[in-house]
Amino acid sequence: ATSISAPALSHEDIVRRIPELVKRLAGKKPLCHNMTNLVVQNFAANVALAVGASPIMSNNSLEANDLASFGGSLVINMGTTTPEMRSNHLNTIAAYNSVGGPVLLDPVGAGATQQRREGVAALMRGGYFDVIKGNEGEIRTVSGATGFKQHGVDSGASTLTLDGRVKLVKSVAAKEHNVVLMTGEIDVVSDGKRTFKIGNGHAFLGEITGSGCTLGTTIASFLAIEREDKLLAAVTGILMYEIAAERAAKRDTVRGPGTFVPAFIDELYAIRQESAAGNGEWAKAAKIEVV
Ligand code: ATP
Ligand code: TZP
Ligand code: MG
Ligand code: MG
């Protein structure tokens, strides 16, 4: 559970501390174990490498105990889950929970079908997630809301006010004793006590597949090296990811979503290299507000 003594984080604290976490990630190269969907395997592995983690994509729970012993983190992404995969997920979550390894859940498409609604409930009954991240429809489903329909993996137009999103994220985090992130043009992230709105990012992230999934991989990479303050780990992942997207979109060579993807990986790598060299200027672009 999130420590009750987690310190308040001001805008200045965040701008100062996040490059240090990026440098620490680059120095440690922790394992980031992804049990993810069939769409994003290669993209997620490349994002993990760019931010400084060591990815392994494995959906086989027979190796979960071995992998959990390496001190890394686990991503559970429901994007293309089958019943067999669900039991692999549950066994692997148990392996990480038993050694205190951080686990992140991305309940992709959770509100779209009965299978997915039941799936997310089964996963949440079956283990502890340090971070749950999703778009509006997914986090609403996690909160137990019904009576709305998500048409697929995309959230569609927002039907909640920003205040409504803040209240929901905060209450789910308090109930689950973890960190909850609702993504969108403005992201809302909370540990139930401390809550932030983040306005970085670029519209191209909504035009490519896997931007939500690979943000999950990025945050999990930071959870592996920052065990004390999970909210700070999540905020670092979000800001590194979204500031990299802004820098990529500004490049002359980027003409649309297709040319954006390689430039985005390059900018994640550049931010890692700058931070490792002690240059944290990039973090000044953070548009983060304490709620
Ligand atoms: P969806 O499929 O509904 O878009 P998702 O799981 O792909 O959901 P997003 O909500 O798109 O996830 O979020 C992925 C990343 O893209 C986050 O970092 C988010 O802040 C960013 N993002 C998405 N849309 C925008 C936008 N219009 N402007 C800025 N950043 C955005
Ligand atoms: N279908 C099943 S999983 C998936 C698709 C298109 C990828 C979703 O990725 P994201 O990051 O939620 O956009
Ligand atoms: Mg998307
Ligand atoms: Mg998603």
> Which residues form runs of ≥5 with pLDDT under 50?
none
Q: What is the CATH topology classification name?
A: UDP-N-acetylmuramoyl-L-alanine:D-glutamate ligase
Radius of gyration: 17 Å
CATH class: Alpha Beta
Bound molecules: adenosine-5'-triphosphate, 4-methyl-5-hydroxyethylthiazole phosphate, magnesium ion
Instruction: Specify the CATH architecture.
Output: 3-Layer(aba) Sandwich
Counting DSSP H or I runs of 4 or more residues, the number of helices is 10
Spatial strand sequence of the major β-sheet: 2-1-3-4-5-6-7-8-9
- Given helix and strand content, the structural type is alpha/beta
Give the % helix: 40-55%
> Any idea how many domains?
1
Residues in β-strands, percent: 5-15%
What order do the SSEs take from the amino end to the carboxyl end, as H and E? HEHEHEHEHEHHEEEHHHE
How far apart the termini lie comes to 21 Å
**Gross geometry:** globular
Name the average pLDDT: 96
CATH superfamily: Ribokinase
Main sheet properties? 9 strands, mixed
Beta strand count: 9
